Amino acid sequence: MGRYVIRRLLQMIPVFIGSTFLIFFMVYALGDPVAALFGDRAPDPATAAQIRNELHLNDPLWKQYLLYMKNIFSGDFGTAFNGQSVTSLMGSAFPVTIRLTIVAIIFEIIIGITLGVITGMRRGKPVDTGVLLLTLIVISVPTFVTGYVLQYLFGVQLKWTAPSVSPEAPFNELILPGLVLALVSLAYVTRLTRTSIAENTRADYLRTAVAKGLPRRRIIIRHLLRNSLIPVVTFIGTDVGFLMGGAIVTERIFNIHGVGFQLYQGILRNNAPTVVGFVTILVLVFLLANLLVDLLYAVLDPRIRYA
Amino acid sequence: MATAAEMSTEPVSARGGPLLDVRNLHVEFRTREGVARAVNGVDYAVDAGETLAVLGESGSGKSVTAQAIMGILDSPPGFVTQGQVLFHGEDLLKFGTEQRRKVRGARMAMIFQDALSALNPVLNVGEQLGEMFTVHRGLSRKDARAKAVELMERVRIPAAKERVRSYPHQFSGGMRQRVMIAMAMALEPELIIADEPTTALDVTVQAQVMDLLAELQREYNMGLILITHDLGVVADVADKIAVMYAGRIVETSPVHDIYRAPAHPYTKGLLDSIPRVDQKGQELYAIKGLPPNLLHIPPGCAFHPRCPLAQDICRTKIPPLYRVSEVRASACHFWKECIGDDRPAADKT
């Protein structure tokens, strides 16, 4: 197991270098950051040249990349064009997004798994068909539609919650955005749980559990759920990485100043240090989340052993 | 196996009557394609210390009967539509869900065919064995684990203390089946139903597992229903045999009589299709045709389309169980011809 973790961590190095270089290359090579800095006005050539020099923009790309990586590892992600350091942007954005992700994951676990278990155990019944249809709708409708509809319904019409989130973004304001963010994954969790439960209900070992004279509750929780939730738990694990970076639409709708919001702003303004910095962190989060999921899988299913 | 046979003649339960008495049991599966009549009036009885072998091809209803006795039929689609399952004279089919559950595992237990899929893959064997004691006997988890180790030692799993924390996939096939047996034995039930307990095992291991099962049965004087299609296994351990075809019992007999002179052409066909050393090189006999589709069981005797002795009466009249002797019965209109005819069925055409 220890050796497996080390091997996986070592594998992360080339993936990390490759993906960050790709982002670096795309962001820096395809736009002129100095022109972007000045907006619509044409910059004074002398000033522009000076800035280019300061930012090492005249160096070859690989040299810029190495310089950037060196700075990253000393904790310096550079400065955004508005003068704020990228690290301070991250410091304010990540906690917000983490809170949003937590809310979303809680929805996925509670609602998704509950619906999945119910439908999985009542296959073909009206509840099952109804929920299945609902998940299909949720999966088909894009987030910006469900987001705006729910925002209008609960925020504007019913006034159960504020339509937009304050900069501090406390948990209670994140309930609706969290739900919106979770919806699609929630539908997948429901379907995955349903299939898994349905499959395991027919398994031989479940018949054994019944033949042992175990009470129904124990059969369901200890034997059925314990086995059925293995794929679900791993899906949710992977989803953490996805939700952290994929909240751009939701954060825009509810005006949440999280990672997605900052990334969006960065891309819009061709703000290279912000974009590269945030994406680099997201790559790391994604890689770590995947590693954790793989390890969790081995913990949950004793048949899987990594050597 | 003389000892087991002797025991079966002893009085078995305070109420008289056999340990288990299945009467006129009917089970059907209501599927989208129609109603499959899997069991159509099965009668059999088992005494304490006695071994009944239930023989038949796949789809003959032998496993479904066992599931109905245990009360683990998948319902829907499976329903018991008629009959009685008398256990110590009490009809289990009239028991409530909770009452029935308490009988399962504690007083009658089941051993399944493929231990790898029948054991829970994500719980270690100690938990799965111990569960019997925590649930039925209210033992603490620690005591239950100690009991689990004891059980594993009793079924002769080496290094039981260490292996109690192992998972099913970490055991060999034979050891896994021993775990399965230990689980069934845990609460010293009065009846064990073993559904093809050795089919998934290597031939050498089969004998060991079968011996262990027979030994434990003797030790605890349990009734044993051995479901199998392996006639070799039957000869060694069974006291009596019930042969099933298309959801009916076609022949019942003490084990040795049936080998000497089968009273039903189906039984005869089964016996003739065992490979034998003295017939090496000859083509192996096989009963012609296929087992019937349970959605459309042939009228009359269900075996008639495959039977070498079939006459007109077989196509119209369902044969009752004719008394062949004091201890034998056959559901064949021509059992006399069958029993007197010792040529292999293949030569008669």
Automatic annotation (TrEMBL), chain A:
Compartment(s) where it occurs, according to its Swiss-Prot or TrEMBL record: Cell membrane
What Pfam families does UniProt report for this protein, alphabetically?
Answer: BPD_transp_1, BPD_transp_1_N
| Claim: Transport is one of the keywords in the record | yes
Membrane topology per the entry is: Multi-pass membrane protein
Quote the InterPro entries the UniProt record gives. BPD_transp_1_N, MetI-like, MetI-like_sf
What are the residue boundaries of the ABC transmembrane type-1 domain, all occurrences included?
94-297
Regions that span the bilayer = 12-31, 96-118, 130-154, 174-192, 224-249, 275-300
Database matches in CDD domains: TM_PBP2
The main location is: membrane
UniProt keywords (A-Z) are: Cell membrane, Membrane, Transmembrane, Transmembrane helix, Transport
Q: Describe the family membership recorded for this protein in Swiss-Prot or TrEMBL.
A: Belongs to the binding-protein-dependent transport system permease family.
What is the name of the protein in this document?
ABC transporter permease
